[in-house]
Structure formats: structure tokens, C-alpha cells
Amino acid sequence: MAADPPFELRTADQILAMPDSGEFLAQFMDDHKQLILDMHQAQMDQGGKVKGGFTITVDYTLDRQLSMIVTAEAKIKTPKKPKASAALWTTAEGMLTPQNPRQPSLPGIRDVTPAAQPIRA
């Protein structure tokens, strides 16, 4: 009676389920879920398009007995936060100012916002 042929891994997900007895793939899926949540939050905070992604690297090492060691690593690239920015102007002296030097200032302008009044019950 012939022996049954060995079970063969035929898909990438079957191979990725092998490292660390399945813990690699489980952790990757948790990290992937968090990536999607981070992308949703970044889009809500920043608007427009946000980018994220991942890279999975699988390395093989074959020894003389034809035993294969499979190692896997996942790198998650989360959306980048926008750089902080400010609109400033330059002065003739080489300094920066938040006020446009070409816009004339109006002397004597004062704040006339009424003071907060306590509400009486």
C-alpha cells in the first residue's frame, strides 16, 4: 500500500499561516485592521486622499537535508500627518512677520466686543 502524498501548501495565505504557528498572520491581520482604521481617521482629520500600505517579506533558507526555514516580516506604512505650516511675510531687514508689510495698518482700531454678562436667574 502506497503512502499518502504529503500535504502541499498551494496558496500564499497557506504559506503565511506557517511562521510562528499562525501567529505571524494573525498579528498581520490585526495590524492591517489598525492601518485601515488609521487611514479612516487621517481622512476625517485631514480630508482629501490619504495613503497607507504594507510590505510582506518572506525569506527562505534551505539546508542540506532539504529542510526549508521560512521567515516572514510585515512592515505597515501608516498615513503621514501633514507638516506643520504657517503663512509668513519677510521684512526688508530679513526677518519674518505674521503681518503683511504691504497691507497698511489702520491706527486707532479697537475691539468693541461686548463683555460677557452673567445670566441672572
Mind sketching the topology for me?
Elements: H1 12-16, H2 23-46, E1 53-62, E2 68-77, E3 89-90, E4 96-97
Antiparallel strand pairs: 1-2, 3-4
Explain this structure to me?
With 121 residues, the chain is an alpha+beta fold. The chain has a domain at 12-43 and 51-77. Helices cover 24% and strands 20% of the residues. A hairpin with a 5-residue loop joins strand 1 (53-62) and strand 2. The longest helix is centred in the N-terminal third of the chain and has 24 residues, at 23-46. The model has no long low-confidence stretch (mean pLDDT 90).
Approximately what portion of the residues adopt beta-strand conformation? 15-25%
What radius of gyration results from the CA coordinates?
Answer: 30 Å
Order of helices and strands: HHEEEE
Structural class by helix and strand composition: alpha+beta
Shape: elongated
Strand order across the biggest sheet? 1-2
**Tally of individual helices:** 2
Helicity range of the residues? 10-25%
Low-confidence stretches: none
The N- to C-terminal Cα distance equals 97 Å
Overview features:
alpha+beta; two-stranded antiparallel sheet
Summarize the structure.
The chain has 121 residues and is of the alpha+beta class.
